[in-house]
Structure to design on (464 residues):
């Protein structure tokens, strides 16, 4: 981020506005939404600012700017039609370490004013860094239409009871869980409708129940969440909602940075990724982590690339949770086979090519590639192999040995569904010696079958 987003306490803030035309008036109107003390200095004053100057927060000086005017101010807006004056005030402000914004001149701005959606005490501020103002206005219009106008009631209600909840519930996690339940449920609906007495009564009952649960310290819950093949747009709604409610997120190597950005900011993130022949944590230790955090009363998201139940060891983790009596849920994700084939333009089934599809793993528990080759080497069938890059040569050899033609098409799909996606196609006999093979790195999926021949025609994503 070029500009660091920040909300400043305006109660004792002193702001200077140099200039008093309509451009300056727009900034003044924004400042008047705060509790700041404002000084406006300009030799000529437009009608809008004359009207706004009636506010007790504003001191109007109808004269040219003087260097001493900067003294005692926290920040300054410069909005004159004289470039020399704008530059001078900018240089002076920088010299005295006063934050300065020269309106409509981004290179002379230490800070910029964001586009604001005001539902005080809830305030949403957005910025494009001055590079995409139309997009910014578009996004503000979207948010204005999505957020109810009476959302401010909910903010005031939360402020009213914040200290009481803090005094009643002992831990940060318990308080967060309680407020999320309030905001997701009937109490919030009552507040927004103006049914205050009914909302307070329901709130009292909910807080009393939460206090009882807080004393017994009930165990947390584990969510096994499929993060999909990489593109964050392929997350399910439920996956996103749980990621934003989690206290702890335990994630693996196949979860993209873009997806991790969607996790709640203050959640603890624990990396337990596995690369080829390099396990950051053994599976048993991962299982123990899930148990430990759940028993501490936390909501734990086990975030896995693809789907938890397709080569994601979700079954092993659930067996551990069951043995420890820990509640859990499973949220399916788009598995790598589906994502990779779709984005590579390789349908897994097709009436003219394949009437069945088999998923297999090229990495077994004992580090072998000893698969049921006769079952895999079938015509009119698509074979998808996960984690098979290391044993690629052996896979190709065994499939030919057990009946597939050496000219059977094969594809390697690397980093599927992301901007880094790469698709390499060949045949079973030529793939192990393909000159571009060294450029393919994990995560990569192997697809074998005549459906691969459709890649060039249906490759909509990479567009070869």
């Amino acid at each position: 981020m070029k500009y660091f987003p920040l909300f400043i306490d305006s109660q004792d803030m002193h702001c200077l506005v140099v200039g008093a035309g309509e451009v300056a008036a727009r900034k003044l109107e924004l400042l008047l939404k705060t509790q700041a003390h404002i000084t406006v200095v300009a030799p000529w004053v437009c009608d809008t600012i004359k009207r706004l100057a009636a506010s007790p927060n504003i001191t109007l000086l109808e004269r040219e700017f003087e260097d001493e005017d900067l003294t005692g101010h926290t920040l300054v807006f410069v909005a004159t039609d004289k470039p020399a004056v704008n530059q001078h005030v900018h240089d002076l402000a920088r010299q005295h370490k006063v934050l300065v914004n020269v309106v409509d001149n981004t290179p002379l701005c230490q800070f910029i004013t964001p586009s604001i959606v005001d539902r005080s005490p809830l305030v949403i501020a957005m910025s494009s860094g001055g590079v995409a103002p139309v997009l910014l206005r578009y996004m503000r219009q979207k948010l204005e239409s999505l957020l109810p106008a009476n959302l401010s009631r909910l903010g005031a209600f939360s402020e009213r009871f914040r200290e009481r909840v803090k005094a009643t519930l002992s831990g940060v996690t318990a308080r967060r869980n309680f407020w999320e339940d309030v905001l997701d449920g009937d109490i919030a609906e009552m507040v927004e409708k103006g049914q205050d007495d009914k909302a307070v009564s329901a709130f009292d009952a909910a807080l009393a129940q939460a206090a009882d649960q807080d004393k017994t310290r009930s165990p947390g819950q584990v969510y096994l969440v499929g993060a999909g093949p990489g593109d964050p747009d392929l997350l399910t709604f439920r996956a996103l909602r749980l990621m934003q409610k989690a206290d702890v997120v335990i994630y693996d190597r196949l979860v993209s940075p873009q997806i991790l950005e969607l996790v709640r900011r203050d959640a603890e993130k624990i990396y337990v990724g596995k690369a080829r022949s390099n396990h950051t944590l053994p599976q048993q230790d991962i299982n123990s982590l899930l148990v430990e955090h759940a028993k501490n009363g936390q909501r734990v998201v086990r975030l896995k690339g693809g789907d938890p139940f397709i080569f994601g060891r979700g079954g092993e983790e659930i067996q551990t949770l069951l043995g420890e009596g820990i509640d859990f849920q499973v949220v399916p994700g788009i598995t790598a086979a589906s994502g990779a084939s779709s984005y590579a333009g390789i349908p897994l089934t097709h009436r003219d090519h394949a009437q069945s599809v088999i998923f297999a793993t090229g990495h077994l528990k004992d580090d072998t590639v000893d698969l049921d080759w006769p079952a895999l080497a079938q015509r009119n069938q698509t074979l998808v192999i996960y984690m098979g890059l290391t044993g690629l040569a052996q896979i190709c050899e065994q499939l030919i040995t057990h009946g597939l033609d050496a000219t059977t098409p094969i594809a390697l799909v690397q980093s599927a569904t992301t901007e880094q996606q790469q698709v390499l196609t060949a045949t079973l006999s030529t793939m192990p010696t393909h000159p571009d093979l060294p450029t393919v790195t994990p995560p990569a999926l192997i697809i074998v079958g005549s459906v691969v021949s459709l890649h060039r025609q249906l490759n909509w994503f990479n567009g070869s």
About this structure: The radius of gyration is 30 Å. The CA atoms of residues 340 and 416 lie 5 Å apart. The chain is about 35% helix and 20% strand. The mean pLDDT is 92.
